[in-house]
Amino acid sequence: MSLSLPALPVPVSLRRLLPHASFVGCGDIIVTGATDDSRQAGPDTLFAAIPGNKADGAVFVPDAIARGCSAILTPYPFPGIAARQCVTQDIRQAYARLCQSIHGSPAARLRIAGVTGTNGKTTTAWMIRSLLSAAGRRCGLLGTVEYSDAVTAEPASLTTPDPNTAAHWFRRMVEAGCSHAAIELSSHALHQSRLAGVQLNAAVITNITQDHFDYHADFESYSAAKRRIIEYVTPGGVIVMNADDPGVQRLQRDAVRTARRVVTTSIVESQVESEASDAAVRAIILDESLSGTEFLVLTCDAEFPVRLPLPARHNVSNALAAIAVAKHFGLTNEAIAESLARLSCVPGRLEPIATDCGRRVFVDYAHTDDALRRVVTGLKSLATGRVICVFGAGGDRDRKKRPLLGEAASHADFAVVTSDNPRTEPPQSIIEDIVAGFPVGFAQFHIEPDRRRAIEFALSEAREGDCVLIAGKGHEREQIVGTERLPFDDRVIVRELLNRATADALSREISLQAAE
Fold first, then answer.
1. Consecutive sets of 10 residues in the chain, 516 residues long: mean pLDDT of each?
2. What's the burial of 25, exposed, middle or buried (CB within 10 Å: 0-12/13-18/19+)?
3. pTM for the whole thing?
């Protein structure tokens, strides 16, 4: 049943919302609309002049005023303009809180689980949504793959949407009868306070390894951004942390200091190791295959078996985090086990592509060295044949991680180096950076800048029992070349190539029969 929300537009007093702000040209501003894009500014819409990475919002104030905007949210006063001004130092946080208020504070009517981490955010949030939905609790989702109000879904533009979009979707969730939401929080979003004013009932930190150093500069800055999720947890909430990850371990003391309940998770090798572990939610692996994993979940007061239809141990780690959140929200062990057993694959996360030739093909979003290494080594431990890895690296992004990706891919039996989203960089220069990371003497690789031809090459090289891993783009349906976004879906390409190969083989067989 939908919860009551105030009708739109909701008038918001900036004086009341931001009591520490100062005002120029007025004593208060009543707002019914807000934007940080001057092209959307108008007489009824406040413009937030947010300093950005590529451009300062202050540059666009004249454009916003020319479009009829009569109110500005700014970190410093603008002399000589007619528009009323609300001046506040932390403009990002102020803007995010304002967006929530304009939409009727919908997030406050939801029980929200937020997930951050270098890897595993999407799968963990997807699992949380699945567990809650199976238990009859309507759950929305904001994440890398899609935004959903539990009734309709749309492809996501960002892992964590901008404040206005997030508030819009939270409102849709409430209007659709959602009681819960699972959301992914990227390091960019946390650093930029995109969800300021939103309180989390549960926060998950999956792992912290290198990524986005083109934005955060170094590991400490990146880790500090991830740490900010702890600040969003409401009193009575829970912080779920992966005790097996060194990057997460560094933040555990910070989490404990908040006086919030901290639940740690861990994969252990035996009952003896389980008893010695400090982790609150533990798993002992019972059986593994390319079709899934069976494990025993152990908590302080119970143990129960789970059959997870997703391969590789990193998915067990993701499942443990989702289990901890589900238990915090009151789900029973039986309901959790039943729901995980029915879990469908997460789009582009070790997503299997059906074949009929004895080869296994997986498409995965792994685009950091840690994620790629985990997926490659996970498949190698389960495959009866070789693991062939197709991968690249994004252009106009952190160059430091390219050789790390090369080292990670060298754990495969054979690597095919290709383009990911080259953007405005020459694909060959990106590939050279990657290849520089291969260990000395590693020669089991092939270079093919054209991604379609690279996938075709890998499929042609694979034999019965082999696994082909196509990594980096996962669920994405476009490839960014230059400034163009071209249709390109690894999953579609694989199916096209496999169908064509099957058709060619059938044609050859018919020709041979006719010749006989």
1. 76 98 97 96 96 89 95 95 95 98 98 97 98 98 98 97 98 98 97 97 94 79 94 97 95 89 97 93 98 96 96 98 98 98 96 91 97 97 97 95 98 98 98 98 97 98 97 98 98 96 68 67
2. middle
3. 0.95
Distances (CA, A) of 219 to 101, 187, 214, 232, 317: 34, 12, 11, 22, 22
Question: For residue 171, which phi and psi values (nearest 5 degrees)?
Answer: -65, -45
The Cα 345–Cα 364 span in angstroms is: 11
Domains of the chain: 12-101 (3.40.1390.10), 106-341 (3.40.1190.10), 351-503 (3.90.190.20)
Q: Please list, residue by residue across 199-232, b when 16 or more beta carbons sit within 10 angstroms of its beta carbon and e when fewer do.
A: bbbbbbbbbbbbbbbebbeeeeebbebbbebbeb
How far is it, in rounded angstroms, from Cα 445 to Cα 443? 6
Could you tell me the two tokens for 480?
A: 């960014």
For residue 294, what are its two tokens? Answer: 């069976």
Q: Order of strands, edge to edge, in the sheet holding 22-24?
A: 22-24, 84-87, 71-74, 46-48, 34-35
Candidates 435, 439, 466; CA nearest to 448 is 435
